[in-house]
Amino acid sequence: MIGFLRGKLVHKAPPLLVLDVQGVGYELEAPMTTFYDLPLVGTEIMLHTHLVVREDAHSLFGFAHEADRALFRTLIKITGVGPKLALAILSGQSAEAFQLCIRNNDTQALVRLPGVGKKTAERLVIELRDRLPVLTGGSIAAFNSTQSTLPTANNHQQEAISALCSLGYKPLDAAKMVQNINSQDKSCEDIIRLALQNAVR
């Protein structure tokens, strides 16, 4: 297993990013909670990783915080929750907020996450209620440098819509979510963060 990768961030387009590790480009998928913290392209970073092996593909997932990876690994063990849905859950809520929903049996908040229906929300509460101690623990910083925001670009709204679609939202719904946000002087990550926050209220 690949426990972590340390290298230069060369590309990021949610939910995908590419890390150059001594001349080898690793393509990873990551939740928005990781993208929110990413520094500028060209900066060296370290990500906790999880490798999913299937017959048709080997997929590598990256996380800025150990707590997020622990939650991801727990989620994909639940019936009906695959890596894509686990990423969507982690993108829609922080690990701490998700744990609070489980403790409070708050299925209404869970069904507002992309891809989570009523039955899945109820299954998450039932199956995770006794596993919460495994998910506790503070976040571990993953970066070696001062974090920065991306420079403003004209296509940030479109990038945000594409990222929301990748998380499971329908294109029309994703477009409406982005249009409801004042995107002036905001990065793609900022737009996605606000759209997801508004969606789960």
Low-confidence stretches: 136-154
Report the portion of residues in β strands. Answer: 15-25%
In DSSP terms (H or I, runs of 4 or more residues), the helix count works out at 10
> Helicity level, as a percent range?
40-55%
Name the overall outline.
globular
Number of domains: 3
First CA to last CA: what distance?
38 Å
Specify the structural class. Answer: alpha+beta
CATH homologous superfamily of the largest domain - what is it? 5' to 3' exonuclease, C-terminal subdomain
The largest beta-sheet arranges its strands as 3-2-1-4-5
Give me the Rg, rounded. Answer: 16 Å
Top-tier CATH class of the largest domain: Mainly Alpha
Structure description:
This protein is of the alpha+beta class. It has helices at 32-35, 66-75, 83-92, 95-103, 107-111, 118-128, 132-135, 156-166, 171-179, 188-199, and strands spanning 4-13, 16-21, 24-29, 44-53, 58-63. The model is unreliable at 136-154 (pLDDT under 50). Strand 4 and strand 5 form a beta hairpin. A five-stranded antiparallel β-sheet has the order 3-2-1-4-5.
